[in-house]
Amino acid sequence: MRQKVVVIGAGYAGVSFLKSLDDECLRLADVTIINKNSYHYHSTMLHKVATAENSGQIMFDLREILHPEIKIVQQAVTDIDEKNRVVMTESGSFCYDYLVVAAGFEKESFNVKGIENSVFIGSYTQSSRIAEVIKLKFSQAMQNQTGLKIAVCGGGLTGIEFVASCANMLKRKCDFYKIPAEISSKFEVYLISSTPRLLTFFSDDLSKKTAKKLEDLGVKILHDTRISSLDKGVVNFANGSLSADLIVWTAGIKGASIVSDSDIENDRSRVKVDENLRAIGSVDRFYIGDVSAVSNGAGGYYPPTAQIACEQGVYLAMQFRDILKGTKFSKPFKFKSNGTICSIGHSYATAQVFGFEMAGFLPSLLKTIVEKKWNVKLLGLKGAFL
């Protein structure tokens, strides 16, 4: 009897797992993916969607990128019954022999009051709405000649990449519409960071280069500034406030709420997994991507990134080849980061790659290559030209 494998989520982790399953696995099991959307998207490129930046294909139809033997269910998961091995959705239920939870991330508020007064770059749909809001507010600002102020809460990778893209977009629009300098100077982008310097995992020198490039683009950076609450159109600090026409929250993420709402033990919707990516004490449930907490061997956990999510997917597919054949799989999951690249506009980036630090066009090119490599995994050679 064919075993039933259910996958929740079509982000980097879930799709990497499904794309890495070989034909024999698909002959031995009925594989179903449950996802609320009919598509997969580059979540690391959502800042470009939020500023309507034309940068190639970002969204991919699941029917086009997945093996035809994989059943696609477009529904939102409402509950996981671990005891009876059932995944429940809005309009049905699905039994499983093995469950792979790759449900992705949600906004982490850190208990900041008034978080509903901000928008979040968390999905393709949310990011598209931000682009529409910016377009509308820009039009209103031109008509009223009042300018536009955008406040971005969070100085991590997403926040930095978004403010850079946003500053470039506003400059292009002001130049295109020939807006006078006395008005264009009122189009402002603020980056609010809780740390004394940006990207603290970079060296002090590389962090300064990141900040300098942002400032050259016109971004105003508020370092070492903790947000106490958000009101409509106002970001509040312990010692002051900042008014804004649009507040964007990029201060952090947590795993999907389907995990925190379940009975399984978790921390910020991340489940501690063993060396084979199974939930501790489980033999049939695997957690990968943003919902997994993988030990880094030093008393902590690896941060959830696209890089580790993709590697988890590939590793788990290798493991399933043995699981479905009834043989023992003993190779533990080991992760070694290749580094981090932070895009700052179209052709500039700062990076720490393979132990080397660099800034300028080269790391920007490297990031483009990484993105194209993922496209090739999804669609074959034609993905390189998208």
TrEMBL record:
This is NADH:quinone oxidoreductase II. Residues 4-313 form the FAD/NAD(P)-binding domain. InterPro entries: FAD/NAD-bd_sf (IPR036188), FAD/NAD-binding_dom (IPR023753), NADH-Q_oxidoreductase (IPR051169). Keywords: FAD, Flavoprotein, Oxidoreductase. GO terms for molecular function: NAD(P)H dehydrogenase (quinone) activity. Signal peptide: none annotated. GO terms for biological process: aerobic electron transport chain. The gene is ndh. Belongs to the NADH dehydrogenase family. SUPFAM superfamilies: FAD/NAD(P)-binding domain. Its cofactor is FAD. Its EC number is 1.6.99.3.
